[in-house]
Design a protein that fits this description.
The chain is mostly helical. The protein is built from 19 helices and 2 strands. Strand 1 and strand 2 (333-334) form a beta hairpin.
């Protein structure tokens, strides 16, 4: 077809689009189902037959009802999150004891016995090994609980009903209803949520889902949220209400992430990624009894192990960097202390400190090592002897009072805690997710945008919170 004819055709199509309106796809889909219903009424006779009770219909009226659908969805997802958080504590503690308290000293002793130089022992055992050990102990238990539970809901047939409930909200934001599924998957792991966007057929809407998936708190960020909320938010309430207030603060941050998902989706669909939201034609599948063995295989092998392996691979170099920054000195001052001093002036403007910003730079490979890195750098920056295991060694305290004492000595305040929780939500994706974004989009431009946009939002929001705090509370 000649170029002029193509241009005329496109011009005609654009003209007709404005005449037809934006609801063409919805109108077509409605007409299709209206015709199907009209034909079925003509050929199917139901007169004189008593309708049998259908538990599937009753369940659908509850799970997808206009008034009950979203509340039930929030309740079920809250139960999944609660089971994940509570159930992961004990196995995570066991893994931490085994990998860090037991195996780490053994490795140090073996290398010392065979005469290994201390810098090699420090770099590879205190740095590389401990980083990998922390990722495994913190990340494996939540994923091993969350992914099977999520897969059970998927097998049961509930996930398409979540998409059905959220479709209207996402469509108003210019996104796709299936983004509700990928957003939910992001609560387990953002990298897995990025891969899950393959279920969205529209390239434009799939890209929106990829860019905004970072606003779902992955399991690597839950420990930071829970610890800081418990130490600072919960401490501001009476002991009987401390747990409730802490949980409410974490849920509030998660809901704020959903708000930013809608906001950024709406902005992208009207600026950089303009376009009409595609029709979401979803025929709800029948409910099925969960297949336990297949669920375990799918969740453990296809999701948990693969994602965990990626995180470990990226975390090991980070452990080496932490050890080097803490142990390479210039004029008896470590490189870490120089960088912290450099970051401090800007960090104060956004209600944080140089230690936190450096920790997030170092922890790009894995969010799981943020808190251990913050602790190590705080001890190093304060030059406190007798706390932790030594320079450049990641650790955690078993006693909450030890956390409180350390952060108090570092001049942390309630504002620091609130902004850390906000920045934990609004910062760059981990390196595993960044790599996954590039693999899924094949675009360096959108990978950079997906990486830098949350940081910009994080700086902007924490700056605004800090200024409001300074006006009203100081």
């Amino acid at each position: 077809m000649p170029v002029t004819e193509k241009e005329n055709l496109l011009k005609t199509v654009r003209s007709l689009r404005w005449d037809i309106g934006d609801d063409l796809h919805d109108t077509l889909m409605t007409d299709i189902y209206t015709d199907a219903n009209r034909i079925s009424e003509k050929v199917i006779s139901t007169s004189g037959k008593k309708q049998r009770f259908s538990w599937e219909g009753t369940l659908d009226r509850i799970l997808t009802g206009r008034l009950t659908g979203i509340p039930v969805m929030l309740l079920l997802l809250s139960i999944v999150f609660w089971l994940t958080i509570q159930g992961a504590n004990y196995p995570s503690s066991l893994l931490s004891t085994l990998l860090i308290d037991d195996i780490h000293p053994i490795l140090k002793s073996i290398l010392s016995t065979i005469g290994t130089p201390s810098w090699i022992s420090g770099l590879f055992v205190d740095g590389v090994y401990l980083a990998a050990a922390w990722v495994v102990s913190v990340m494996l238990p939540p994923m091993a609980i969350f992914f099977p539970l999520f897969t059970l809901l998927e097998d049961f047939g509930y996930l398409p009903r979540i998409a059905f409930n959220m479709d209207n909200l996402f469509r108003r934001a210019g996104a796709h209803g299936k983004q509700a599924l990928t957003m939910s998957m992001g609560y387990g792991c953002n990298a897995a949520g990025i891969v899950a966007t393959r279920i969205i057929d529209s390239p434009r809407e799939r890209l929106i889902a990829i860019i905004t998936n970072n606003f779902s708190l992955c399991n690597g960020r839950w420990p930071t949220q829970i610890l800081i909320a418990s130490l600072f938010i919960g401490a501001a309430a009476p002991p009987a209400l401390a747990g409730v207030l802490s949980a409410a603060a974490v849920v509030a941050v998660a809901l704020l992430g959903i708000f930013f998902t809608f906001l950024v989706s709406w902005l992208l669909s009207r600026t950089l990624l303009k376009g009409q939201a595609s029709t979401f034609s979803l025929e709800l599948p029948p409910y099925r009894p969960p297949r336990i063995l297949q669920t375990l295989y799918t969740s453990m092998i296809d999701r948990t192990i693969i994602v965990l392996w990626r995180a470990v691979v990226f975390a090991m170099p980070a452990g080496a960097v932490i050890w080097l920054l803490a142990n390479i000195t210039i004029s008896n001052i470590s490189l870490a202390e120089y960088i912290i001093s450099f970051f401090d002036p800007f960090a104060i403007l956004i209600g944080l400190n140089g230690v936190i910003l450096l920790a997030y730079v170092i922890a790009i490979p894995a969010n799981e090592i943020v808190i251990p890195t913050i602790l190590m750098l705080t001890v190093l920056n304060l030059n406190i002897s007798g706390v932790g295991s030594g320079a450049g060694v990641m650790f955690e305290f078993s006693d909450a009072n030890a956390y409180t004492t350390l952060f108090s000595q570092a001049n942390w305040s309630l504002l620091t805690a609130i902004n850390l929780m906000l920045f934990s939500l609004l910062h760059n994706p981990c390196s595993t997710t960044i790599y996954t974004i590039y693999k899924e989009t094949g675009s360096a431009k959108w990978t950079w945008f997906s990486t830098l946009m949350p940081i910009f939002l994080g700086f902007m929001i924490t700056f605004l919170v800090t200024q409001i705090w300074n006006i009203f509370f100081i």
